[in-house]
Write a structure and sequence with these properties.
Layout lengths: L7 E5 L4 H12 L3 E6 L2 H11 L3 E5 L5 H10 L5 E4 L14 H29 L3 E6 L12 H21 L4 E8 L8 H5 L1 H8 L13 H8 L10 E4 L9
Parallel strand pairs: 1-2, 1-4, 2-3, 4-5, 5-6, 6-7
Helix pairs in contact: 3-4, 4-5
Length: about 240
């Protein structure tokens, strides 16, 4: 039911922790994978590790020409993981217009452009497919200092629903995964601090998520196991978003 044999997945932000993890999971389930990011060297290293069913491509999700070229080089994709994203951490009063524009350009506009390009090709091929937008629990709640990020992720969740309704007649399913805090080398120092430990205590499960905690939702939405799911947002956060504290 969860097999992806015969499928081809295009993963943006594949040079980062989660993007690379998603690529490994989809590849292990039988899919050919296209690893797409601006930092193509990291994608090339991962493609070499995964073997002939993996392809590395440079893409800038802010650039329509770059997106078009990437899909020309990697046709027939019927799974898209819209994962590229950044955050700028500053107090609201110090958040510049440039900060705002950069975050929304990659996290929201980029997801729109890549999603539209992928969907157009799926429609033309009459293949159907699955688009999975990587949102965040911060699309439904906030923490101080990331105004652009929370706004972009909230909009991405609503865009997911819009796409799901409009693309359903083409047999294209569009869903989102909303991770909570995922442990990584980048945030390890913060979560080891007093403030980070206090934040972990507000998670009902009392732990950070691990990349593998997203494997089940990813495979559910990518495969035929989720055939009757579209417009859904799967939250994976150890209960953090429902904790009133």
């Amino acid at each position: 039911m969860f097999s992806l044999r015969g499928r081809k997945a295009f993963i943006t932000g594949a040079s980062g922790l989660l993007g690379a993890h998603f690529a490994r999971v989809l590849h292990a389930a039988g899919a050919k994978v296209v690893l797409a990011a601006r930092r193509v060297e990291a994608c090339e290293a991962l493609a070499a590790e995964l073997g002939p069913d993996a392809q590395a491509i440079r893409v800038d999700v802010q650039d329509e020409a770059s997106i078009a070229a990437a899909f020309e080089a990697a046709p027939d994709c019927d799974i898209l993981i819209n994962n590229a994203g950044i955050a700028v951490t500053k107090p609201f009063l110090e958040h510049s217009a440039e900060d705002w524009d950069q975050v929304l350009s990659i996290n929201l506009r980029g997801a729109f452009l890549v999603g539209q390009a992928a969907a157009r090709r799926m429609v033309a091929a009459k293949s159907g497919g699955s688009i999975i937008n990587i949102a965040s629990v911060l699309g439904e709640r906030i923490i101080p200092g990331v105004a652009g990020y929370t706004a972009a992720k909230a909009a991405l969740i609503q865009l997911t629903r819009q796409m799901a309704v409009e693309l359903a007649r083409h047999s294209i399913r569009v869903n989102a995964i909303a991770p909570g805090y995922i442990a990584s080398d980048i945030n390890a120092g913060f979560f080891a601090s007093e403030g980070g430990q206090a934040m972990i205590k507000r998670i009902p499960q009392r732990r950070l998520g691990q990349p593998q905690d997203l494997d089940g939702p990813l495979l559910l939405l990518a495969s035929n196991a989720g055939a009757h799911m579209t417009g859904s947002v799967i939250t994976v956060d150890g209960g953090h978003s429902i904790n009133p504290l």
